Structures are given as structure tokens and as C-alpha cells.
Amino acid sequence: MAIKSFYYSQLADLRIEGVGLHASYSIHLVIKDENMESGKHVYVAATGRSNAAKAAGSGKLLFWCKVRTSFDNKTYVLERAKGDVWATGIDDIVIGATSFFLPITTWFTPSLEVEAGYFYDSGHTGTVPPMPPSMKRLISLTPFQR
Q1: How buried is 83 (Cβ within 10 angstroms: 0-12 exposed, 13-18 middle, 19+ buried)?
Q2: Partners of 27 in beta bridges
Q3: Mean pLDDT confidence for 71-78
């Protein structure tokens, strides 16, 4: 079983008075993959962080994240289920978690394409994404155990 932690940052701009480059954000991913006889069980959890809401003076950030597997192109959306318990830092925003099973069907090492971002919700004028609206990263998992 391997547990890996990843921090990714994205420079971003939000055209709202007082925000500008304060819209930059970071995503913290924790990925656990556990080899089994018939494949691999994968668990992905994420939190996000940005100063955009503080810079604007009000509003909230709605983070999102999705994971796509490399060999079957299935997409999994990270969501926070009712009753989930999370320990986070003072400025971290919980995005959610997902888990799935990858069967041994190929000979190459599986990887995940992670795409994440957020929307700024002012509450009275709607939601707007920063520019660029998302970031993508490729993460290689541990090889299948044969």
C-alpha cells in the first residue's frame, strides 16, 4: 500500500475588484493505492486553498476536482459525503473524496489525470471562475503487483 501526498499551485487571475492575482490557488491531494490479487483499490481525497474570498471581502469559494483513469478513461468526481470527517488546516477548504477499483487488465503502470479548480460565488451576482479556470496534473500510481 502506498500513500502519497501532492501539493499543486496554479497562478490565476480573477477580474473582481480587489482580487486580481490573489485568485491563485493550491490543491492538496492524498492518494492511497492498495495492490490486491485482482487489481488495485485507489482512494483520492483533496482540499483547496486560495485568498480570493479574503481579497474580495466577501463571497465563498466552491472548489471542485475530478480524476480520470489512464487506461479506461473513467471519470470520478470528488465529493464530500454527509458524515465525512476531515482534519484540515485553518485556510483549507474540503473538496471531497472518491474511491474506485482498477482491475489488472493491462501491463503498464496506471496513472490518474487530476483536474481541479474553483468558482468564486459572490452570493448576489453569481459565480465566476478564475483565469485559467482549472489545472490538470498527471500522477503515476505504483505498478500493479503480479
Answers
A1: exposed
A2: 8, 48
A3: 91
Q: CA–CA separation, 49 vs 90, rounded Å?
A: 10
Q: Lowest mean pLDDT: which of 9-13, 42-46, 58-62, 63-67? A: 58-62
Nearest Cα to Cα of residue 33 among 86, 99, 116: 99
Q: How many CB atoms lie within 10 A of CB 101?
A: 11
- Which residues in 70-141 belong to E strands, given as ranges? 75-77, 93-103, 111-121, 127-128, 134-140
Close Cβ partners of 10 (under 8 Å, ≥ 6 residues apart): 24, 25, 26, 27, 117, 132, 135
Q: Which grid cell is 6?
A: 501532492
Tell me how long the chain is.
146
**The residue type at 82:** K
Q: What is the pLDDT of residue 146?
A: 67
Task: Say what the pTM is.
Answer: 0.87
Is residue 132 reached through a cis peptide bond, with omega within 30 degrees of 0 on the bond before it? yes
